[in-house]
């Protein structure tokens, strides 16, 4: 029996907003700038979110979307031979079918393709940006056993294709950054640090500061202790085992990336001049 005091429409809308935020901001090892949409337009994003959370859906949670993404990324590696031997249409049908097994998520293969292609491109942006900002950036040390490691595996397969567009089958949806996109991305990949204290809790930020801003997790920075790539490869192999099914796989809970909080001119325009205790810049001292 439905709860007469529960607003199901509002709950669905809030879940869509949470899923959008999780995809754009919470997935570790992917980069979306502040003004970026997931699929390239707000209209396409809304269509995707409506499929992820239909109006009648009441059991789907935001973590279901994260698990679905992880499963589909694994399925991309497991079904890669279909892409090579048959083509993208059959590939995305097989990937979607495998990813949604015993899941609350039911979306068309077209939207699965659009979502995963966008995430592979976001992974490519992340690697390019981190490499530009941090000369000592090491992919193997940075990866964790989760969506970022699964996406990195797919990205490397895509980069090895003679024609990267074969992955999506759509010339308007490239899974990697164009040369123009690379130049724009690297132009805004700038480190910031404090150069002048304005008040007890406010500092002016600028590029080229003697001490750059880093997440607190950098204080304990060290080599990776887990083989994230091996973890993902083992899961992909296990999908072929009769005793292991994809519905048993969920996205591992990982800590936020130690370096994704570094602001840039495009990603954090409000942080390019001052840092504060949370007060808006427009608020008078």
TrEMBL record:
Residues 246-285 are annotated as: Disordered. This is Uncharacterized protein. It comes from Metarhizium rileyi (strain RCEF 4871).
